[in-house]
């Protein structure tokens, strides 16, 4: 029985889910950690804890989306966008 699809596309989805999901999760965790003390009046520790915990949910969502999206190119582009945004925030 022949496997359906291209194995390279599957490998790209695995890389996008792993690396891109990590980039989106760290971007979300950083944004939440900075936003919570400012908008909700929480302490910085509570903002960091909330951002870290919600980062896991963002990582899971990005990994699920990487395998459910129809276009491999869109998945790879979004993963690269997340990586660029993370590097840009680090540089700033």
Describe the structure.
Helix 1 packs antiparallel against helix 2. The protein has 92 residues and is mainly alpha-helical. The protein is elongated, with a radius of gyration of 16 Å. The chain has helices at 7-39, 44-68, 72-91. The protein has one domain (7-91).
Short description:
The chain has helices at residues 7-39, 44-68, 72-91.
Radius of gyration, whole Å: 16 Å
Shape, please? elongated
- The secondary-structure element order is HHH
Main β-sheet: number of strands, strand sense, barrel status?
Answer: none
Strand content: under 5%
Helical/strand content category: mainly alpha
Low-pLDDT segments? none
Q: What's the total number of strands?
A: 0
Q: End-to-end distance, in Å?
A: 52 Å
How many structural domains are formed by the residues? 1
- Summarize the amount of helix as a percent range: over 70%
Number of helical stretches of at least 4 residues: 3
**Overall mean confidence score, pLDDT:** 87
Per-chain topology:
Blueprint: H1 7-39, H2 44-68, H3 72-91
Helix pairs in contact: 1-2, 1-3
Key descriptive features of the protein:
92 residues, mainly alpha, 3 helices, 85% helix
């Amino acid at each position: 029985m022949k496997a359906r699809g291209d194995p390279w596309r599957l490998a790209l989805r695995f890389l996008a889910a792993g690396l891109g999901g990590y980039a989106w999760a760290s971007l979300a965790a950083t944004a939440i950690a900075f936003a919570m003390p400012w908008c909700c009046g929480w302490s910085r520790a509570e903002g960091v804890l909330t951002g870290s915990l919600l980062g896991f949910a963002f990582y899971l969502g990005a990994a699920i989306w990487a395998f459910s999206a129809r276009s491999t190119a869109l998945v790879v582009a979004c993963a690269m966008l997340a990586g660029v945004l993370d590097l840009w925030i680090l540089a700033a």
